[in-house]
Structure prediction request, 428 residues.
Amino acid sequence: MPTLRLEIVTPDAKTFSEDVDMVTMPGADGELGILPLHAPLMTQLKPGELRISKGGKETVLAVGDGFAEVLPHRVSILTDLAVTEHDIDEAAVQSALERAQAAKANKDLGSEEQATVEAAIAKSLAQLHVKRRRRSA
Amino acid sequence: MANTREIRRRIKSVKNTAQITKAMQMVAASKMRRAQQAALAGREYARLLNEVLVSLRERVEEGAHPLLVERPIKRELVLVLATDKGLCGALNTNLLREASQFKTDTVRYVASGRKAVQYLARTKRDLLADFELKDAPGFAETKRIAKFCVEKFLDGEVDKVTVVYTHFVNTLTQKATVRTLLPISAVELHGGKTPVADEAQKVNSSGFIFEPNAEQVLDAVLPQFVNFQIYQMVLDARASEHSARMVAMKSATDNAKQLVKDLTLEYNKVRQAAITTELLEITTAQMAVGG
Prediction:
């Protein structure tokens, strides 16, 4: 059975590089499930949850903004954030979220800063979502 | 022959110098470790981003995005990434030699680092802007530089943007490098080599899906690519700076220590000679009196 070589990198480190059976990622237009031999595809990613299944087991990561390139046997994901559910520090993320929201309330931000703050909020929410969903399940 | 007091004074001053260079070496070494880690951590991301862009570049026409368009080069912008401080060996000399190889009349400069600013002012080059960066540069800071370059390129003020920076190879080797930043060309992406066929290229362009669409993907990928390239080059420049300084200070310390050794030997010789002369004088005087 064909597999997919999945590579996830962030500017700080290579987070993941393995052969997997399936990847589900948050694309710009909604969730995308990628199986081996998928048609070549290039997509934008938005902050959200990325699921990897390998040998019947599922790993969940929270990812930030980025891109993914899909080729029949390879998926390359470039993102500014990628953490596994286990590594998410809920308290730290929560306080980062609060800080970002406070910054957002501050009206005199330039458009550039506004975008940075928005991105930070989206990233924090994605992480919290991943962490909390697992617990309730 | 120099007298003993003179030599003693010199030994003391050289020892002081050695102490200072030793301290600088330690500081540089600790900064170096951090800077090297940062520079190397980004390599993988840069490689993959590059790969993605290579396959992307082959699937869209040249005119698909303004950042890809190659225009006849009338004016050029050169970004020079140098250091703020000296005492880092031949690093800046090599870098600025590369930077000065452009034709003066068509080139305008953007600089980061005081050494580059001073040099460009001294040689009366056309300096458009200079950016100050902190010691551990953040992505947001380098983004300003990228934004400036991209704006100049898109306004048509310049037709090409080149970066001169020091590529970090390892602690002992740093290479002054010239790279084209804009327009984003396929040749540059391949690291100067002509493209080779691989799995990615066998897929023809009609079968490639862009989500949401090609324009939006390009709009997101290309600026990110430029931002990240500059960020990575700044990190490289920093890692090179600290490595070069560490090595320069280490050899300075070693030289000072050698000098102290030589001077001590000289000092002992002079002291011995003085004692011998004195003894000789006493004996001669005694013989003169006794005889």
The first strand of chain A starts at residue 4 and ends at 9.
